[in-house]
Amino acid sequence: MQTIIHDQFPIRSPKDFLVFGSPPIEMDEIEEVVASMTSGWLGTGPKVAKFEEDFKSYKEADYAVAVNSCTAAIHLGILATGIKPGDEVITTPLTFCATVNAIIHAGATPVLADVNPVTMNIDPERVAAKITDKTKVILPVHFAGRPCDMDALSALVVDHDLKMIEDCAHAIETEYKGRKAGTFGDFGSFSFYVTKNITTGEGGMILARQQSAAARIKTLALHGMSKDAWKRFGDDGYKHYYVEECGYKYNMMDLQAAIGIHQLARVETYWRKRQAIWQRYLEAFSDLPIGLPASPEANTRHGYHLFTILVDEEKAGISRDNFLNAMTAHNIGVGVHYLSIPEHPYYQKTFGWKPEDYPQAMRIGRQTVSLPLSPKLTDKDVEDVILAVKQIFK
Ligand SMILES: *Cc1c(COP(=O)(O)O)cnc(C)c1O
């Protein structure tokens, strides 16, 4: 049985298409961007410094360096661990390709450890089984905003003398036993891509625990130029800069930070909105033949970045891909987070990975659908999503 809705009235009209992950942009950030433009200082400058300060204090972290993406943040974090070619970094197969690509960019070898089927986070027992003499870094992803089992992962880091980089692209607001995600590891990396919990258009941040590591990352993010090179065009005299190593072009612009400063000021307001939508979905879908996200574990704070349902064709009577098409036919945008990493041809060719070797991530990747959860959604938008989902599974 395939429930396709061509002969039914779509819940929304095409001109009202609900774009998945569309962020709320408010007047404060619009005015701040305009102020940056009229000031003439568009590139890395005082607004980036303020955004770093604000983010650091929100996260109760020691050091924060703004960059132009989370991919850049992970790349620099791995480099700053002192990794060498052939060293191994263990991460999850249920993540965005950027996590794995950044490991490869840094010259290291990615190794996958399957996820826990309930939390969808990397399983510490699977990580332990993958540790070898070559393992240098564990790179957990707090999937959908749910914190990983940080006690177990931190114990592995200590026992095997490893480093840890947390991929917090979903997890700005996430906490584990009262401590903020991104402050457990040597580094925590964050994304301000358009669909993330707060946005700068494109952008990222890296948290560090040591001053020397933060300074190295700052240097690497701007061609390897000596500290505060951006001040060289300021008004207190010409300053020479010196290239200390061959770095990258990963700096954030003031134009981006102008958006981020005001988005960050609303991070908790947005979190509460997403939490309310999350609860509404849970109630509305409780009697449907689909998998729903597990409740947050005790003593943790979920970031509510993604609301993911599982569509098992045998139970639901419709395949995941047909469900995606049916939602789109209702003019509601949906997402898939994620086809497991070993489904992609590049990794199959390069590392010989097979989806079946990571069965939990494979199953989730083939059944999962992310429903709209942006704080921009109106009550009517949320009710439209609910109506569409109920109609498809009816
Ligand atoms: C979005 C995302 C990234 C990459 O973030 P960018 O800022 O786009 O580079 C990395 N990891 C995960 C889990 C993500 O969702």
Please render the helix and strand layout as text.
Blueprint: H1 27-39, H2 46-59, E1 63-67, H3 70-80, E2 88-91, H4 97-105, E3 109-112, H5 124-130, E4 135-139, H6 150-159, E5 163-167, E6 175-176, E7 179-180, E8 187-191, E9 204-208, H7 211-220, H8 254-265, H9 267-284, E10 300-301, E11 307-310, H10 313-316, H11 320-329, H12 345-351, H13 359-367, E12 368-371, H14 379-393
Parallel strand pairs: 2-3, 2-4, 4-5, 5-8
Antiparallel strand pairs: 1-9, 6-7, 6-10, 8-9, 11-12
The structure holds pyridoxal-5'-phosphate.
Characteristic terms for this protein:
394 residues, alpha/beta, Aspartate Aminotransferase, domain 1, Aspartate Aminotransferase, domain 2, 2 domains, 7-stranded mixed beta sheet, 3-stranded antiparallel beta sheet, 14 helices, 12 strands, 38% helix, binds pyridoxal-5'-phosphate
Structural class: alpha/beta
Bound chemical compounds: pyridoxal-5'-phosphate
Segments where pLDDT lies below 50 for 5+ residues? none
Radius of gyration: 22 Å
Order of helices and strands: HHEHEHEHEHEEEEEHHHEEHHHHEH
CATH topology call of the largest domain: Aspartate Aminotransferase, domain 2
Given the C-alpha coordinates, what overall shape results? Answer: globular
Report mean pLDDT, rounded to a whole number.
95
Count of spatially separate domains: 2
- Judging by the overall fold, what is the CATH architecture of the largest domain? 3-Layer(aba) Sandwich
Beta-strand residue percentage: 5-15%
Quickly count the helices: 14
The CATH C-level class name of the largest domain: Alpha Beta
